[in-house]
Design brief:
Elements lengths: L3 E3 L2 E3 L5 E6 L4 H11 L6 E5 L9 H15 L4 E4 L13 H14 L4 E5 L4 H14 L2 E8 L6 H13 L4 E6 L4 H17 L5 E4 L5 H5 L1 H4 L3 E5 L9 E2 H16 L1
Parallel strand pairs: 3-4, 3-10, 4-5, 5-6, 6-7, 7-8, 8-9, 10-11
Antiparallel strand pairs: 1-2
Helix pairs in contact: 1-2, 3-4, 5-6
């Protein structure tokens, strides 16, 4: 695996890096959420633009990203518009989704964009190419809020996303049992042993919390914590997350 360097952060090396969501319905709420990250051990910020009431308006999004860059300085920003079909707050037609993400890439205010794998091969290819041309990195994501597929299916999905050109393939699944969590972790370990790129895996809800802590052993490059509100089930506070990750890291490197 080749680590990925974004600003001063290296993904895919050492302990998982802590990504904290920025959310809000208005620009003032979003900026307040971003300022809260400055008092917690956040290493990346994920702006969940689907929470923003003007989240599909490229001009409004550009203005907010300009403000976020001023607040967050050199902290990497991941831009995510999570569609309703993938668990987000707003629906978006494919043409809207593509136009929005192309605009974000062209503005170069975000360091990474999240692309939903479910948008289909053509849209994924177009957005990965647009991001590359702009020097923006890509998280290609797949979410299942109903179940956890078998480990081989999760692994296959990650590998397909890697072949599609993703800088960071991501799979998040919902466990119904402890065995489901083991399926996710087995897929992660297999991906760690074969992948050329860093990746992200998450088993959601309280049952899957261990997956948010075990990335250094099983391979997930970053994990999601909170400063205030959670953007997905099972997230824990960034402070608690850092303490646990550091303890695991010290144990593995002792």
């Amino acid at each position: 695996m080749t680590p990925l360097k974004i600003r001063g952060l290296t993904l895919g090396e050492g302990r998982p890096k802590i990504c904290v969501p920025v959310m809000g319905r208005t620009s003032d709420e979003i900026c307040s959420s971003a300022r809260a990250l400055l008092s917690v051990p956040a290493e990346l910020a994920e702006w969940r633009a689907d929470w923003y009431k003007e989240g599909l308006n490229p001009d409004c999004v550009r203005q907010v990203l300009t403000e976020l860059r001023e607040i967050l300085k050199e902290m990497p920003i991941l831009f995510t518009f999570r569609t309703a079909s993938e668990g987000g707050e707003q629906p978006a037609a494919p043409d809207q989704y593509i136009a929005l993400n192309r605009s974000v890439c062209a503005d170069r205010l975000a360091d990474l964009i999240d692309i939903e794998y479910s948008m289909g091969t053509s849209a994924v290819s177009e957005l990965i190419q647009a991001a590359r041309q702009a020097g923006v990195r890509t998280v290609l994501s797949s979410h299942d809020f109903r179940r956890t597929p078998p480990a081989q299916e999760i692994l296959s999905r990650l590998q397909v996303m890697e072949r599609a050109g993703a800088d960071l393939p991501k799979v998040a699944v919902m466990p119904q049992s402890q065995q489901d969590v083991m399926e996710l972790l087995q897929a992660s370990l297999s991906m760690k042993q074969s992948s050329q790129v860093p990746f992200i895996t998450v088993s959601m809800a309280q049952t899957g919390v261990i997956s948010r802590l075990a990335g250094e052993f099983f391979g997930s490059a970053f994990t999601f914590g909170t400063a205030a509100g959670a953007s997905a089930p099972g997230q824990i506070s960034a402070r608690d997350l850092k303490q646990a990750l550091e303890a695991i890291h010290n144990g593995l490197t002792y």
